[in-house]
Amino acid sequence: MLDTAIQIRLLAAYPMLRGLPANLLESLCNGAQLLRLPAGTVVFDEDQPCQGFPLLLAGNVRVIKASPNGRELQLYRVDPGESCILTSSCLMGHTRYQARGEVEKDVEMVVLSAPVFRQLISAFEPFRDYIFGLFSDRLTDMMQLVSAVAFQKLDQRLAALLLTKTSPLRATHQQLADELGSVREMVSRLLKQFADQGWVKLGREQIEITDAPGLKRYSLL
């Protein structure tokens, strides 16, 4: 059961829950648990059954698709106020996970039991609208990802990715490779080329963007 302080934080992060009737709010609080997970924790993995629906209060989770040879492609991130469409799909379709969820920054989250999730979907329209709105947003993101992977060269995708980050970016070349579904050696080589062009300055686990317009022009070629 969730205590009052957690309930307040949950309603602040997920305002569509504020209109819950008293009986549904009671069901939610009685059928949920608070989890705190450190960075690196695998929240769910491929072919595992879904145990509940997460609502993040702090931290974030990366959802990753891995290949048999160990390469990874980041599908999306889940931040506070958001949730995981793969989880909702598994719960509604009674299927197993087809990707892995891994904590990137220490997470605090409320996990709704499967029965409570289904009760909210069927009985509370604002929650149902929230879930299907997430599907719409994530589908758009996934189409952009598919388009980038299929039609853009890796160097253009890397340039575009760097432009979405705050400079200086504190990340390893491996982390960037994971986001792009590539390998560290290739990303390192491309970053060195970007540095030679004067677009970035490389440091130890740090990348400073020195010519954002140049990077943007290159990403759009």
UniProtKB/TrEMBL annotation:
Entry-linked CDD domains: CAP_ED
Keywords assigned: DNA-binding, Transcription, Transcription regulation
Presence of keyword Transcription regulation: yes
HTH crp-type domain ranges (all copies): 152-213
InterPro entries the UniProt entry points to: cNMP-bd_dom, cNMP-bd_dom_sf, Env_Response_Regulators, HTH_CRP, RmlC-like_jellyroll, WH-like_DNA-bd_sf, WH_DNA-bd_sf
Keyword Metal-binding among UniProt keywords: no
Listed GO MF terms: DNA binding; DNA-binding transcription factor activity
Protein name (record): CRP-like cAMP-activated global transcriptional regulator
Organism: Ferriphaselus amnicola
